[in-house]
Amino acid sequence: MGKLDTLTTSRGFKDANREKNMDLKLKGSRVIVTAGANGIGLKIAERFLSEGALVYICDVDELALGLAKKKHPSLMTGLCDVSKREAVSVMIEEAIQVLGGLDCLVNNAGIAGPTGAFHEIDPNDWDRCIEVCLTGQFNCARLVIDQLKMSKNASIINLSSAAGRFGFPNRAPYSAAKWGVIGFTKSLSMELGDFGIRCNAVLPGPVDGTRIQSVIQEKASIAGQTPEEFTKTWLSMASIKELIDPQQLADLIAFVASPLGRTISGQALNVDADLQCLM
Q1: Exposed/middle/buried for 72, CB within 10 Å: 0-12, 13-18, 19+?
Q2: CATH of the domain at 116
């Protein structure tokens, strides 16, 4: 199933009014976005660029990094797998050097992980999902604290998921990692508040794009449904029956990272069309 037609009107209205948005006072802000070369990460990077921020993105996809750089020449880029501590150390050092400091880390990197009954999945697939989706955030956050302490508008924003507040059958590794992100985020907020560093988590519902279409295909197969049938049933569990536009996530993240969000910390911010459960 492709992108839903119901999104067209709201997107068109939003885009037409982009230039009328309030000034988020992010001009000159220095931002790192992990997994920023495509999808949600690129939308986030582009949103910060539109506010005049300096943005460094890392990704495991070298081709996508090149395409993002070609599209936005001002982007600073680096190849990095956030689950690898040595690679993260090199990336963070380079990013801080080229940015001239740091004001915001967006821990966006994540993978879908395996689909299947938890006792039947390959343990290596479990490990990989936790390493990228949860430990990767730790790997990045631990190395930026000293820089953030020097910022007048410091924040860390961690991408969790609606799977971080619901059970998610046949997606246990992903759900476990995303629940972990919530605990990690709240703990950071409490530890770092005295230094003026805010920390929040964003919890998207099903985000329109290639990753969710792959998940829908797999879960529909397990349920014995077509992808269209599964999607219709899934969306029926939300008050607003739409997949989430990744631009909405980017807009929220930019606001929370801005001085306008200066007292927003320790929050799990849901962008999920009032989803009631996952299946």
Answers
A1: middle
A2: 3.40.50.720
DSSP-derived 3-state class of residue 158: strand
| 228 in a structural domain | no
> Both tokens of residue 154?
């410091």
Q: Could you tell me if residue 12 is inside a domain?
A: no
Number of separate helices (H) and strands (E) present in the chain:
11, 7
Is residue 114 one of the residues assigned to a domain? yes
Each residue's pLDDT, cut to its tens digit, for the chain (279 residues) gives: 344 333 333 444 344 344 456 899 999 999 999 999 999 999 999 999 999 999 999 999 999 999 999 999 999 999 999 999 999 999 999 999 999 999 999 999 999 999 999 999 999 999 999 999 999 999 999 999 999 999 999 999 999 999 999 989 999 999 999 999 999 999 999 999 999 999 999 999 988 877 778 878 887 888 888 988 888 887 888 899 888 899 999 999 999 999 999 999 999 999 999 999 887
Give all strands of the β-sheet with 76-79 in edge-to-edge order. Answer: 76-79, 54-59, 30-34, 104-107, 154-159, 197-204, 268-271
Cα Rg, the chain, nearest whole Å:
18
> 138 lies in which domain range?
27-207+245-271
- Total number of domains in the chain: 1
Alpha carbons 146 and 102: distance in angstroms, whole number? 9
Alpha-carbon gap, residue 64 to 259, rounded angstroms:
31
Q: Hey, is 107 helix, strand or coil?
A: strand
The verdict on residue 181 lying in a domain is: yes
Task: List, by residue number, the catalytic residues.
Answer: 174
